[in-house]
Amino acid sequence: MTIRRPSDHRPGPGPGPGPGPGARRRAARAALPALAAAAALALAAPAAASAHVEVGPESASPGETVDLAIAVGHGCDGSGTTAVSIAIPAGIAAVTPIQSPDWDVALTAVDGVRTLTYTAERPLPDPVRGQMHAQVVLRDDLAPGDVLELPAQQTCEEGAYAWDDLGPDAEESMPIIQVVEAAPAQDALAVAETTPASQPLTIAALVAAVVAALLATVALRRQAGIRAGEAAR
């Protein structure tokens, strides 16, 4: 079973801190370095991503259903990509191929090993980034910290790459999914008590107040008319 424990993988970097409060102009000036860094990362991302066959998202929780994006960033030493195969680990309970533009997709099982194979309708040129899709369901008995390995095979018009290495110095890094703890669910009862129930009561109270005000106005005007008539007599 291709599941690794925390000691066998490197955790990914977490999100950076957000901007602090302040006046509008000071906040704008303070944001300039962050914007510049983000722009640099955006420019560098295609170059870094082109070095691997990648699978995203790279993390999911036990029992979760996720839509995977499988990306290939380059060919084989200049030769166009004709097919990409992904071995599905035992930690994935179910997998559903999703039709992806420009790719024919097939799910096969041989000796209990499931493989997703995407075949290009025409070779994907070497510098062009391609993307395929699938939906998977993680087993609910997985534990946070487990790592699902998805060895990938890239086939080109000439040559091939086997993306199945995991070491820190791996030249052909294997795609993985890190199993993380599920986010706490929102308290449905609290939401039902604070939103659906209170909203109709608030609207009803507002309508009642408006009707009462109108009735009071009509009554006052009627009394004023009666008094005016009596005074005229």
From TrEMBL:
Coiled-coil segments: none
PROSITE patterns: TAT (PS51318)
Chain intervals for the UniProt region annotation (Disordered): 1-29
Transmembrane residue ranges: 201-220
Positions with biased composition (Basic and acidic residues): 1-11
Signal sequence residues: none
Pfam families: DUF1775
InterPro entries: TAT_signal, YcnI-copper_dom, YcnI-like_sf
Record keywords: Membrane, Transmembrane, Transmembrane helix
YncI copper-binding domain ranges (all copies): 52-170
Protein name, as recorded: YncI copper-binding domain-containing protein
Species per Swiss-Prot/TrEMBL record: Agrococcus terreus
